[in-house]
Amino acid sequence: MIDFWLAAGLLLLVALSFLLIPVLRSRRAQREEDRTALNVALYQERVAELQTQQEEGVLDAAQMDAGRAEAARELLADTEGAEAPRVSRLGKPLPLLAAILVPVLGLGLYLHFGASDKVELTREFSQAPQSMEEMTQRLERAVAAQPDSAEGMYFLGRTYMAQDRPADAAKMFERTVNLAGRQPELLGQWAQAQYFADGKKWSDKVQALTDEALKADPKEVTSLGLLGIAAFESERYQDAIDYWNRLLAQLPPQDPSREALQGGITRATEKLVASGGKVAQAPTAKAALLKVSVDLASDLKSKVQPGDSVFIFARAISGPPAPLAVKRMTVADLPVTVELGDADAMMPQLKLSNFPEVQLVARISRAGKPTAGEWIGRSQPLASSTTAPQTLTIDSPDK
């Protein structure tokens, strides 16, 4: 911050120089004017002296002219090189007054419209905070300085939740939603903060927020976790198990919260059994299995070789670009009929049955690369639950 004010002071001195230099120059011009006036007075005195000597008969007319000429040369020599006097239309008081008002007005305008608070915050955020309280204070100042920053409000809300200040967090998440829109994850965070701010009492407002979040995204993790907590607190143990199982399915295997979540499911199960209930088993998803017959267009048979690789796969219409199920054949195997199912998944989390709509693709690759080749055939989008046999023809250049 000191560097900023030093730079501002230097720029101010540069600005003042444009105002004060003309004033200083005017003083120099005044001195030049006074010296010229003195030389003229001496010239006139010398000429008067010569006239007196001529009248007394000491000098004749020729000597008088020679003396006058000599005095004129001396006057010209003394005044030669002097600058022409500059006439200031502003006068001296106005530049001096401006020199005083410029820094005062500049400082006042900067303090009112400037960004000194943001400069200071930038300097502070360049250093690691020493405590959670210091981080909270920084975020609060950042939100005050940038009231239109949804990101700053979101992080401040998360910080309030970490400090067990759910009421403040709920207000901050509400402001975030008003700025960034009603995104499912923001609605879930708002609902969670509101629930704890109300003393763990379920309300119509919290219900509406979670309903809206899960309608937009059925896998929204904060809402699923919150609904499980609320169900457990109200002794609806089966509902808690269902919500937490849905949440568990969304978490990656290495997520550290899986252990705590699994512990919650176990406790809910024990309480349900102790109260005389029976845990309902979640229906297992039916494994998807697509049957597809692949052939090569007749006009391409002369352009391929029997050993060229043929990759037959299904990929999600809305989802990751990676294939969901893959089989590898050769041109010599065509025509061929294959089945693509969950057992052919390249990754466990990318199963065919996890995506409602897919596209079938067959690609010929002389280099043996499944991502690029020479010829390709594609199907129209179809449901992953389709049981009718499909036909696929490789007939187009792979671009």
UniProtKB/TrEMBL annotation:
Question: TM spans, by residue?
Answer: 6-24, 94-113
| Chief place of localization | other
Q: Which residues form the Cytochrome c-type biogenesis protein H Ig-like domain?
A: 290-395
Annotated Gene Ontology cellular components are: cell envelope; plasma membrane
Is Membrane among the key words of this record?
A: yes
Q: Which UniProt keywords apply?
A: Cytochrome c-type biogenesis, Membrane, Repeat, TPR repeat, Transmembrane, Transmembrane helix
Which PANTHER family does the record cross-reference, listed alphabetically?
CYTOCHROME C-TYPE BIOGENESIS PROTEIN CCMH (PTHR47870), CYTOCHROME C-TYPE BIOGENESIS PROTEIN CYCH (PTHR47870:SF4)
Report what the protein is called. Uncharacterized protein
Which organism does this record belong to? Pseudomonas fluorescens
